[in-house]
Amino acid sequence: MTDHSLRILVIRHEKCTGLGMLENAARENNSSIQYLNSFQGEALTEPLENYSHIVVLGGMISAYQEDEYPFLQDEFKLLETAIDQKIPILGICLGSQILAKILGASVRRGEAGREAGWCEVQLTAAAKIDPLLREFPDRFKVFQSHQDTFDLPSNCTHLAKSDTYPNQAFCYQDFVWAIQFHLEMDDTVIQDCAALLEQELEESQIQGNSVEQMLSDAKYFSPLVAPLADQFMHNFLQT
Predict the structure, then answer these.
(1) pLDDT tens per residue, range 81-95
(2) For all residues of the chain together, what is the average pLDDT?
(3) In the annotation, is 182 catalytic?
(4) What is the CATH number of domain 3-237?
(5) Which residue in 93, 119, 156, 193 is the catalytic one?
(6) Is 184 designated active site?
(7) Residue 58: what pLDDT?
(8) Catalytic one among 146, 182, 193, 200?
(9) Per-residue H/E/C for the chain
(10) Can you give the residue ranges of every domain in the chain?
(11) pLDDT higher than 50, residue 103
């Protein structure tokens, strides 16, 4: 598959979300990007095999709420088909939890509460030979906003952890990656999703944090994460 044939399907669960800092690498690889707003009931209008890669973004809902949000059931089927067809997939935050679920692991509300703001993540030894993460530092700070977590699915490789939640990233075989953290989030995306983030902080009764603080911290941390996000996406698009 040549660079000119790269077509990325991006599944989103909130209108404010997008590829953010991952988009630059996609554009540099001459990729076309199509957003599928599954939360609005949108469905694919062409065969899944027409897409070279899939990115599943985050959102406020939980991967175990498929009865409350029936569109999730359709999304699960789509991703199961993509895995059967070995289409490379990247799941971010909610996306990672959805991948964990369809790969057979438990997804649940985390006992440690919400992990919010710019948090430190530590790579495992296995990440040092992972095609997407091998160029990352052992420890780095990256944006997070989640209170659900997941068990590591069987037959998957554990790639990252934090002090709050041990399962921060994994890969399945050589074409599915799941990251709990947000490499795509910079101050622009945080601002776009400010109302959503405020609601999450309020519902989680987070004290000592705010969207204003997240934005202020982003001025320092997002330029450090940007080259990591760029390399990560470049590597993903080579799979």
Answers:
(1) 999 999 999 999 999
(2) 95
(3) yes
(4) 3.40.50.880
(5) 93
(6) yes
(7) 97
(8) 182
(9) CCHHHCEEEEEECCCCCCCHHHHHHHHHCCCEEEEEEHHHCCCCCCCHHHCCEEEECCCCCCCCCCCCCCHHHHHHHHHHHHHHCCCCEEEECHHHHHHHHHCCCCEEECCCCCEEEEEEEEECHHHHHCCCCCCCCCEEEEEEEECEEECCCCCEEEEEECCCCCCCEEEECCCEEEECCECCCCHHHHHHCHHHHHHHHHHCCCCCCCHHHHHHHHHHHHHHHHHHHHHHHHHHHCC
(10) 3-237
(11) yes
